[in-house]
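Input record (one chain):
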Amino acid sequence: MKRTEISRGLYPRAPELRRGTNLTPAEEFWVVKRGIKLTGMPAWGVTHDDGLLWDVVAFLQKLPELTADQYQALVKSAPKTHEQMMQEMEMGTGHDQGDQPRLDSEDR
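The corresponding structure, as predicted from the sequence alone:
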């Protein structure tokens, strides 16, 4: 995605978590949950539960390794809206809730 006028003007710049970082999964969770002041990095913990945030962290851990085709397949299978995702969670067909990351055993 190209950087927009707004993103080019952010100072300090928001972290580029998609490229992989030197952060531990717990540190990435903290960043995703609480955001980073003055960078445009939102605090997703206000609107998303910890289980979903750990899913985001697991995704970020795998993202640098994904091919474009793998990424597109994941995008196509993802819920289209936050409301749809919440309904899937309530029906038990979506993400599990919990405080622990759901990473493959080799990633723990």
